[in-house]
Amino acid sequence: MLIKILGRRLAQAVFVAWAVGTLTFFLMNLLPGDFAYRIAAGRYGYDYVNQAAADAVRAELGLDRSVWLQYLDWFRDLLRFNLGDSLVSGNPVSQELAHQLGHSLQLALFASLLSLLIAVPLGLYAGRQVGSALDRASLFISVLLRAQPVFVIGLVLVLIFALQFQLLPVAGFGGSRYLILPALSLALSMAALSSRMIRNATHQVLGSSYYQFARFKGLSEQQAFTHHAQPNIALPVVAFIGIQAVSLIEGIVMIESLFSWPGIGHALAHAIFGRDVPMIQGAALVMGLLFVLINLLVDLCCYWLDPRQREEGLQ
Amino acid sequence: MQIKNILAVVGFALLAWLLLDYQAVDQQQTLTIGGPFEFTSQDLSKDGFMYTRMQVAEALVDVRPDGSLIPKLASDWLVSDNGLEWRFSLRSGVSFHDGRPLNADAVVYSLQKAMAKPGVVQQLPLERLYADAEQVVVELSRPYKPLLSILAHYSLAILSPSSYDEQGQVVALSGTGPYQVALLAPPHKLNVRRFPEYWGEAASIEQVHYLTGHRAESRALQAQSGQADLIYTLDPASLDLLERADNVWVHSQSIPRTVLLKLNNAHPYLNNKQTRQALSLALDREGLSEHVVRVPDSAAYQLFPPALGHWHLSELAEKQRNLALAGELLKQQGWQLGSDGVLEREGERFRLNLVTYADRPELTVLATAIQAQLAEIGVEVEVVVDNSSAIPARHHDGTLELALIARNYGTLSDPLALLVDDHLQGGGDWGPMNWSSPSLSELLESLMSSDGEQDRQLTRQAALLLADELPLIPVLFYTQQVAVNQRVQNFQFDPFELNYRVAEMSFAN
Amino acid sequence: MMGLNTSQRWGFALLFGLIALAGAEALFWQGDIALQQLDAAFEGPSLAEPFGRDHFGRSNFARLASALRTSLLMAICSVALSSVLGVALGMAAGWKRGAVDRTLSFVVNVLLALPGLILVLLFGALIPGSFAMLYLAISLVLWVDYFRLIRARTISLIRSPEVEASRLYGFGVWYIFKRHLWPNFRKDVYTLSCFGAGNAVLALASIGFVYVGLKPPHAELGLMMVELFPYYSDAPWVLLQPLCAVICLVLSFHMIAGTVDE
Fold this sequence. Notes:
Radius of gyration of chain A: 24 Å
Mean pLDDT of chain C: 83
Mean pLDDT of chain A: 86
Number of strands of chain C: 0
Oligomer: heterotrimer
Distance between the termini of chain A: 10 Å
Shape of chain C: elongated
CATH class of chain C: Mainly Alpha
Helix content of chain A: over 70%
Largest interface: A-B, 63 and 66 residues
CATH class of the largest domain in chain A: Mainly Alpha
Low-confidence stretches of chain C: none
Number of strands of chain A: 0
CATH architecture of the largest domain in chain A: Orthogonal Bundle
CATH superfamily of the largest domain in chain A: MetI-like
Order of helices and strands of chain A: HHHHHHHHHHHHHH
Strand content of chain C: under 5%
Strand content of chain A: under 5%
Number of domains of chain C: 1
Structural class of chain A: mainly alpha
Order of helices and strands of chain C: HHHHHHHHH
Radius of gyration of chain C: 22 Å
Distance between the termini of chain C: 19 Å
Largest sheet of chain A: none
């Protein structure tokens, strides 16, 4: 069973890498405008982009070659695990991704964990006491947080913690002090959704017949909750957090921009404006693989949490 | 396992992360600069501005804030009588950050690398460049007066030969400036520290950090909270806020950049001076200056801003907006107001595309306002927000009708080089389109080999001609707004934005 | 209104209130969203301008109303497109299985792995300045949710005795869909749609943050927030208007979806 999970995900990874890279390549080639001019603008800035610069770029990068030839080049490089060089900065794509995607991942991971710390206790409590004042209050706050763009949350946090109390820096990166505010903004908006999710799962499980039976057969509330409720609450929650984490990596453009965080969102926007094809392909490919990886982790977690799957494996 | 335990583990992990990743910064010895400028590499032709601003790299010649040129790495220079051979002597006792000494061979090597790249250096009528007994010799094919201002450009800063790899790319930037690179994290961060063996006066501040901030609001907040000492390019919306703060003051200074309307002068609607005048008269520049960019007195009635010395004509009277006259001029061209408020002539509507670019956020805002102002005289404008490369691309394929651009007239300290490129060398991707004037060409030719009072006279005539003919319609002058923390002493500002001059600043105790 | 609980009634009331606001402006005020009066920037509310003026001295009421119309229409279109696409393809995959299922799941897997942001930015770049294109891209991201849900539901429903019986009696696809499948999907599709509409508006605001999709002088709620964000300290009441409109809009969708009264 375990081998089957790993094998399936590995095959998916290979396939996703090829499909996503190919799709972005051809979508990029559909974009209007002269690539040489775009790349020249990305390289030399708006004061210096002109025909001479565009011609130099065209000659240097061989943009006159046919699309298929360029695609084959990319594919050959991919087989050698080479993502190519950025057309704008000239640095290897892998190096740029390591810097920018790395920072995004760091932020996403920290924010996800922080959101767990907020959402799990809140969701469990609200789910056990449905209809209580706290349940209602958490619902109200959750809807309010979900109904506004995350930059408003970020701005409010900055005004409180950076300007009023001068505890944390406004923006920047390098060191954990810079991580707290952007991560907290994201965590709050994530927890707004996941805390309700946990609350509903808890409510459902506590009302289920197997939990009632466990209580009926004489287990204390503590025992019944640990052995019968927790795994059943955890299953959907793990799957949900996994999906949330994936969407987070790309969904943090606003936070990156507000907090001057060197993330992948801004880099992607720039790469598309600058027609930096290898950079877009590389980013799509790595993010696609990341998607597969997170799915694998979710699979493994469920495998570990769900005794039925493990028994199936033993037979 | 209990959920409580898992949560506790997660909590401890996050706490440990925060503690382990804590990086202390010595605020007392570190000056932090914030600005919107991104840099992607160490290649001077692309991102050299960042390294000259942070005073890592220096050029042979330096531009003073008033635009005059003084020796930097070159100690002096001699021009042959025919203006074709320039000999530069080098300052002695200068060493690069990697320890090598500065000599003529290193300078020639560095300049040759720069000349292989696109950029302003390509405007130079260069014949030969070589080292001759500790002098650097530049031979030209024809006299070219703005040579010094080209050599002062950031793309021609001098780097140590060890900075380049075999392909001629800069991989380990090593210059001669008072600061050397400490941490390089493009596109957002550059930290530099004091270079102890600097040839000139050593810097007072030990460390300088630069951080790119994309959003003007968060940059303003950085200044307000004291996190950053200098914040460049404040947006108008944050000015009031910062002026109320007591730890910061705002420095405003004109820079040689002008917002202007570039027009296709061959377009059937725009191919005469009267129509261009009418468009110019329809603009409410004072309104734009007061309420949109919120910098009083930035209305522009000529192309050259006050920062450009004698190219700026102070006597050019401020013309007010005049819709009646604009309407009259358009009527003379045969345009009649249609029933829907749009001008018509022989069944054609006065409808134009206006291209602008989002790279500078204020341009889309100004385009919105100009669209509304031109609608008042019956000119219908459709705003197209594109990328900056659309301007030269559409200039060359002829699809440009109107464009709102922010042109930097101070890429070189002498605008002459730029005008010569616009009008004599077939450049002008950012200059007038489909427009030529024999008298202007003549003036520019004579300016290439004039000096003193004659130079001043010719400059005046050229500037007047451009302001009168309106091949480009000036809209606003730029003002750079810098938030400066009170603890920064002796703040300096370079309108050409080649140098932040932090080495001359210090902290109050 | 039959079969609605209190929360849903309030949700509809809120939504109709917003629509009425947008309609009243079009009927009685008929303001111009592009007309500027630079010297009246940030003028406070008056009878003629009940919501004051923005940074260009444009009528906030006219802009807000127009933005509500645009955003609502766009959000509804993108939700309709994604739900129809998701339900139809999800059913096809769940019903036919085999090659159809494999092909569609293949496409969905690629779409899921392709970062939504890249897709939206690419589509935005195809026709710069087009709102419709951006919403189309957002629908392309959204339909996957419907597909996965409907496919899973169809697979289990199609084996149920009722559907088996209907098929044996020779009833057509449409009948089975109407009689057996749709009643089962309905609640989930509504819920997904209500969240989707709110998310579509918020997604556009986040795209506006990287300067894509701005096309003056049109008004759209997400972009208005980004446009007015710099003035948060000068004129917070102006920024609050599109913000409140979005909050009300999203809140009304959530209430209609029934999540508030769980």
